[in-house]
């Protein structure tokens, strides 16, 4: 029984201090890493993309649970302990911008499913995914929801350590071995 329990526990992982990075190859080509971030800890603050290496790491450290084999969720994706990624006004339409808002238990606007086969975050109960708006890699580009599309570089997110650590991103992406002790990132997946 102990080994069966250990097997289940090792597949599902709750991670704190995760940097969520875009898989759009334009970031790699530009020699930068684009992280989901916010500029401030306030309701309504836009969810943006920002160069991971020039942003205050507190503004890009997310709490999320994921599993390497099966979807996890619905769940809230938290920052600052009490703010969640939120679909602005709950509008289910391509191009709706994302923001952070005080976490509200059960809020449909804050429920996400981590999809391991596509490396996406899908808004629960919809066909919308977190999307890099217009594929723009410039700092402060506000992220949006868009209809989930297979193999869309604008919707793919994967794991890697915090840039302040020495663990490589592909090690995390392939093993999902993050812990609460070692900060890690969700990084681009190779195309």
Automatic annotation (TrEMBL):
Record flagged with keyword Amino-acid biosynthesis: no
Domain of life: Eukaryota
Domain Ricin B lectin: 24-160
Listed InterPro entries: Ricin_B-like_lectins, Ricin_B_lectin
Pfam families: Ricin_B_lectin
Keyword Methyltransferase: no
SMART domains: RICIN (SM00458)
Keyword field: Signal
Gene3D superfamilies: 2.80.10.50
Signal peptide: 1-17
Protein name (Swiss-Prot/TrEMBL): Ricin B lectin domain-containing protein
Biological source species: Mycena albidolilacea
